[in-house]
């Protein structure tokens, strides 16, 4: 089940946080509860993706995206993700999550998120490709940024993000399943 209570808690907890610039970092704190674990008694990889929502939505509010989505009746979707899992997160362990927009192109906004353990080790790191949607399909980031009253120029796309975008462009869709 989706963690609605936890989402509302995060939105409430960060309701008075100051606005962030478009590429500002939102920091939040989370705990791995018993219902987040898998049979190996660690944070389930699928649940990790769900918990990342708890950082992205408050980030979107703080940069002004949520207001633009509501004003224009747009939606927000994830169009791809690449995750590196490096350290286990055990039951009741507390993590610090960082979330930020890295850059954008003509179609997508690229977001970076990470979960950090108390000892400073990065447990996992995600690169998301997100899209704003409207009745006609994808809304170009330039249109979204204009609605937010923000400059349209993206920061330079890091090489590793460019490589991921290029790799994704070669991936067949729909999958070639036999």
TrEMBL record:
Source organism superkingdom: Bacteria
Annotated source species: Salinihabitans flavidus
Pfam assignment, any one: 4HBT_2
Gene3D superfamilies: Hotdog Thioesterase
InterPro entries, per database record: HotDog_dom_sf, THEM6_lcsJ_thioesterase
Coiled coil location: none
Name of the protein: Acyl-CoA thioesterase FadM
SUPFAM superfamilies documented for this protein: Thioesterase/thiol ester dehydrase-isomerase (SSF54637)
Species classification: Bacteria, Pseudomonadati, Pseudomonadota, Alphaproteobacteria, Rhodobacterales
